[in-house]
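Cross-posting from the modeling subforum.

Setting up a comparison between two proteins and wanted a second pair of eyes on the formatting. Protein 1 (sequence, then structure tokens):
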Amino acid sequence: MFIDRKFPNTRLRRLRRNTNLIDLVSETNLTSNDLIQPIFIKENFKGSEVIESMPNILRYGIDGALKEIEDIVLSGVNTIAVFPVIDTANKDSKGSEAIKKDNFMSASIQAIKKQFPDILLIADVALDPYTDHGHDGIIINEEVDNDETCKLLIEQSLILAESGADIIAPSDMMDGRIGLIRQALEKNNFKNTILLSYAAKFSSKFYGPFRDAVGSSSNLGNSSKSSYQMSSNNKQEALQEVAMDINEGADIVMIKPAMPYLDIIHLVKDSFKIPTFAYQVSGEYCMLKLAISEGWLDQEVMLESLVSIKRAGADAILTYAAKEISKEIKINE
């Protein structure tokens, strides 16, 4: 008996028959140009050392950092974000070392830009690597004082810009600091210095390994940054934070962390149409790396995670896997 079956006219599987077809109609493509490699540079140190809580990631003296940056460039990554690891002896309650013109970070940036003039260098603006209490600002009456902290962030930003940083990235989450820093940059003839604002930085439990890497974890102890970093429960507040920073002069906005906040990345990009970066933070990276090393997840899960962040709307991604993934992309080209 003949049965007239109603087969579908549209068969989406036609476009999945082989990898060439899949690549041809791909909606989201991750390239080396989308990746930013963070680097930890340690004061009064030579060579490199292991960070116990971060697989395959090292702290470098400036000599080691220059060698690492050469490898990063060869991998195809053109942008780095530098984070200082400050000698304990140079930390104090006000983060005074951050505003010294001849400080370690200033010298490191100058050395990097001298050897790699074409690389894009992002410099972190925050006091937590420099304070003996691990907070991103000055503590007055047992609270992080917003306005007094902003005064120091302005000075720190000018020093980093003068040192040669292409992009200044305030990660502190103090109210009003973007407008104040922008005004100071304009006034001091740094009109072309780009402001990348950590506009929606959440008070997250995914930051632990990073704090170990820069040496602020032990200083912070059980103290919380929830009075200035955003609550993970909030979405509309993120839009308000981003809108404020855009109005104050941010050129690019950052969402941090990335994968637990894909909805925020998408919402921000869709709402503002401004260059939007995301930070796959240390906890995200380490979680995936551990699962891969134990054989619980396939190696390709790292690439998949980054594609998901790009698909959500991120124009670029800070990730500790940038160099590794960029090499993988080049092999598959």
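Protein 2 (same layout):
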Amino acid sequence: MRRATPPALRVVETSLLAYRRQWKFTLATTLINPVFFLVGMGVGLGSLVDKGQGSGHASLGGVDYLTFLAPGLLAATVMQVAGAESTNPIMAKIKWDRGYEAMLATPMTVVDLVIGQLTWIALRLLQTSVVFLAVAGLFGALDSPLALLAVPAAVLTGMAMSSPICAWAATRENDYAMATVWRFVIMPMFLFSGTFFPVSQLPSGIRPIAYVTPLWHGVDLCRSFALGTAELWPVVGHIAYLAALFTVGYLLCCITFRRRLVH
């Protein structure tokens, strides 16, 4: 007798079937953006930074700008994909096409639904991370075999963002607030969480804010792996912080999804 597919995996299968028709629309964030960023910022701007400051400038950890930038962009790009997957698509399945209601009409619980949705988002982040790391490797921007560990680190960073945003998106009645998340949460983190320059160069009053953002933890974690400078306790601290954010977001998802979908 064929073993039944776990309910959470059915959510993943549904998302995968839909993605097979839509993957071309995500090609820019998955492949083209990394190439443009690494060429424009890493190679173009990086040549000016290295020339002006001297290659191996101390503030960049003794490496050229491209090598410094690539792992930060990996974490930041995955964060953006997580934001995109956790806002309008969640609202669409709740309010517009009511896909979640159809799923809950089967022998599936809210917990199954949440686990399946977050698993699908994690797979999308894994895809993005692997492609980005491969592109960075082709640019010669990786200094250590430990760079492979930047992939799960980036996925964890994205999930630490995704689960709280999913929980919040489930409470919205329209998509107007989605732009607010991008304008006041995602973009400021993208610019000021150590992706393009060390957080130590920020004004002293802003640094504590940067240090508590999930992206800073993800950038520092990915960069330490890519440069081969990872140390045990900082790595453990970053992972614990990001895992805690994800766990809180997951629990909130279970609450907000149930309130919204179970009548």
